[in-house]
Request: fold
Amino acid sequence: MTAMVSLRDVSKVFDGSSGPVRAVDGVTLDIERGDVFGVIGYSGAGKSTLVRLINALETPTSGQVVVDGTELTGLRERGLRPARAGIGFIFQQFNLLRSRTVAANIAYPLRVARWPRAKRQARVAELLEFVGLSDKAKQYPDQLSGGQKQRVGIARALATSPALLLADEATSALDPETTKDVLDLLRRINRELGITIVVITHEMSVVSYLCNRVAVMEHGKVVEHGDVYEVFARPEAEVTRRFIGAALHDRPRPDVVARLRERHPGRLVTVAVREVPGEPGVQITERLAAHGVAGSVVFGGITEVGSRPLGSLTFALTGPEAAVDALLADLRAHTEVVDHTAEEVPA
Reply:
């Protein structure tokens, strides 16, 4: 099976005030058909430029971009139009036409594509029902909530039945509850319509809830990519570790460790919670009992990534030193353990 999106050594260089700026730097990446793929990175990482290369709004300085079997590199505008017609785009700030009704906003790409009026109306009605806004057809964008506006934007992006849907920070302007509703809608689009979705975001929570695979970008490069759980459970790049730490808040900073020491007797250790397919999870409570060590949770955080637990717990352990050492050796055979005993206390 060919990939829906294939990038080969793609770079994009802009002329900056102080010299060339390499916004995308030698990216090679495949996004499979039917996948939900996340591209995550901090501001300036090159994510938005990458998505503009995929939908041919930018031309690469070098390298090859292939979307749905069509090589976009070097195509003239006339050749790019049919390729773009197969790509839907969801914007961060909705980009709705304020002077047009909800129905007219959704119909706009169909008018551009010269669909007959009756066919347009039928398609708009179908999409309004799909996104749950059939009763809002005659309202205007200013009469809608943020979540409703984004649903209109999604319906508009689906109007021409694209094979690929690009979402650039599509939930960053929404509150957490509305974000979940929009992500659930994207899940449904992927599951029921089979549309490949590429999500550009700086939020790990979006990727962990929605995506199957992820690429992490920094300074225009893809620094690691793969299965979402594997990348987040065993990060290789420092930027990925920063994302996880900021999202989970599951590991105590040195100053927090110092305060925990003041409040809790015993040995402070942080135990990573990971799930390996085909293997039983680390039964920490059972291992404590087996080694005759008492332990209480004093810090931590666990989230779900692809319906699997990810995070860490910090314990205050009390018991004979040899028993604690044996427990930690047992745990280290199965997961990552940080012993805070040797850490320096901040001044």
